[in-house]
Amino acid sequence: MAIIKPFKGIRPVRDKAGLVASRPYDVLNKDEAREEARGNPYSFLHVIKPEIDLPDQVHEYDPLVYRKGREYFDHMVHQGIFFQDREEFLYVYAQTMEGRTQYGLVACAAVSDYLNGIVRRHELTRPDKEEDRKNHIRVSKLHYEPVFFAYHPVPEIDEMIARIVAGEPEYDFTAPDGFGHHFWIVRDRSDIERLVHLFREKVPYTYVADGHHRTAAAALVGEEMKKNNPSHTGKEEYNFFLAVHFPASQLSIIDYNRVVKDLNGLRAEEFLKKVGEYFVVHHKGTEIFKPVRLHSFSMYLGGEWYELIAKEGTYDDNDPIACLDVTVLSEYVLKRILGIEDLRKSKRIDFVGGIRGLAELKRRVDSGEMAVAFALYPVSMKQLMDIADTGNIMPPKTTWFEPKLRSGLIIHSLD
Predict the structure, then answer these.
(1) Are residues 183 and 274 in the same domain?
(2) What angle do CA 299, 300, 302 make, to 5 degrees?
(3) Is 91 in contact with 184 (CB distance < 8 Å)?
(4) Helix or strand run (H / E) with residue 158
(5) Cα angle vertex 219, ends 144, 108, to 5°?
(6) DSSP 82-103
(7) 264: number of CA atoms within 13 Å, CB side?
C-alpha cells in the first residue's frame, strides 16, 4: 500500500507566490524560458532552468548550471522570498482550467515504494535526462519540483479534501496562461494522520502521470545517499520525494501529436497510397480536422486535412499496448512507411502537445519545416493505469497532462 509522509515545506511568501510560480523545466526550451522569466527576478525558472542566466556557450548539463540554480535559490531565501514551515504538514494544490478543477494532495512519497513497484510507471526514461535531474538534486539537496501522481479514487479522501478546501487558501492566483492555481495547508494533526492512514489502507498503488525522469532521479539519489550514510535509519528525508497525488477521476489526458520532416523519399501521392493500405482515408479539405474517437487519426499533408481510420487487424483492443493509437501510428505509418524505427532517437520526428492546438501542426507543415503532421485521439486514464498495472510501457510521448503543476510553490529538502 502507498506510503505518504508530511514534511516541512519550503515555499514562497504569500504576496510573491504568483510571481515565483513558473511552468515546469521540461515544457520550455532555453530561449522560451529566458523570455518568460525576463523582467521577473522572482521567477522559479531562474532556479530550475539556470542556464537562462548563463552564457549561451555553457552546455545545459555543465556542472556550473546546477551550482547556479542552487545559488539563485539561496539568494531568494536570503531576500526573504522563501521560508520553511516549522512543522511537518500536508498540503492541497488545486488547478482550474476551462472551468474544471482538480485537487491534489501534496505529500512526500517513499523511495521504497518506487523501488518495490508500489509507484507504477508507464514510460521509459532517457539516461541523459535522468542524470540531469539527479545532478540538480545532488547539488541542491532539494526536490525543486513535485512529480504528478494519480491514484484510484477513495471516497473518504475525496470528502476530507473537499472539507479542507472549503477554507481560505494560502495561495490563490491566475497564471499568465489563464489557469487558476490554489493552495491550502493541512495543519490539523488528526487530518494529517487520517490521510496518511487512508493511503496505507485504501491506496494500493500510485501512478506516475507526469514526471518519470524526476521520479526516477529522486528515488535513485535517495538510494545513493542511503548507501553513503553508515548511520542510515530509514527516517531521513532523502528516503522520500515530493509528489502531488490526484484521484484519477479528476484527471484528463489531452492529445500528444507528431510532425515529420520528410516523406522518406515518397511523393505525396505515393505516400497517400501506402497509407491507404492500412487506413481508410477520407479527404476533409482545408479546414482543421480533429479526431473524435479511438482509431481515428487526423493527418495534414500538402495543405489538406485527412481522416485516417485504422483498418481491422492494425490494432487489438484486448491488448493494452496494441490497442493504443500511438502504437498503430508508430507501426504502420512511422515505421513501415516513413522508416522511423526509434522515436526516441530519430531527428526526423518531433512531438507537439495538444495544448498548442492543431493550428500548430498546420503552421509547422505550411512553413516547410515539416512535411506531414498527425493528430491522435488522446488515451484515457484507464488505459494508462492498465498499462502500468500489467508492467507494460507506452510508446514515447503518448500522454500530455494539462494543466501542468506550477514549479516553486512547494519544495522538499533532503536535509
Answers:
(1) no
(2) 135
(3) yes
(4) helix 155-164
(5) 60
(6) EEE-SS-BEEEEEEEETTEEEE
(7) 16
In a domain, 260, yes or no: yes
Residue 205 to residue 120: CA distance in whole angstroms: 7
Average the pLDDT over 218-226 and give the result: 95
How far apart (Å, rounded) are the C-alpha atoms in residues 381 and 94?
Answer: 19
pLDDT beyond 80 at 396: no
Residues 101 and 244 in one domain: yes
Taking 90 as the threshold, does the pLDDT of residue 198 lie above it?
Answer: yes
- Residue ranges making up the domain that contains 27: 4-253+402-413
Give the mean pLDDT of 14-36.
94
DSSP secondary structure of 218-257: HHHHHHHHHHT-TT--S-SGGGEEEEEEEEGGG--EE-EE
Count up the domains in the chain and report the number.
2
DSSP states along 261-306 = S--TT--HHHHHHHHTTTEEEEEEESS-----STTEEEEEETTEEE
* Mean pLDDT calculated for residue range 231-255: 95
CATH of the domain at 302: 3.30.1760
Whether the CB-CB separation of 151 and 246 falls below 8 Å is answered with yes
Cβ(146)–Cβ(77) below 8 Å: no
User: H or E segment at 126?
Assistant: none
What are the two backbone dihedrals, phi and then psi, of residue 95, each rounded to the nearest 5 degrees? -130, 140
Vertex 73: Cα angle to 71 and 77 (nearest 5):
115
The verdict on residue 340 lying in a domain is yes
Instruction: Please give the mean pLDDT across all residues of the chain.
Output: 95
DSSP-derived secondary structure for 351-391:
EEEGGG-HHHHHHHHHTTS-SEEEEEPPPPHHHHHHHHHTT
Q: Does 396 fall in a domain? A: no
How remote is the C-alpha of 212 from its chain's centroid? 8
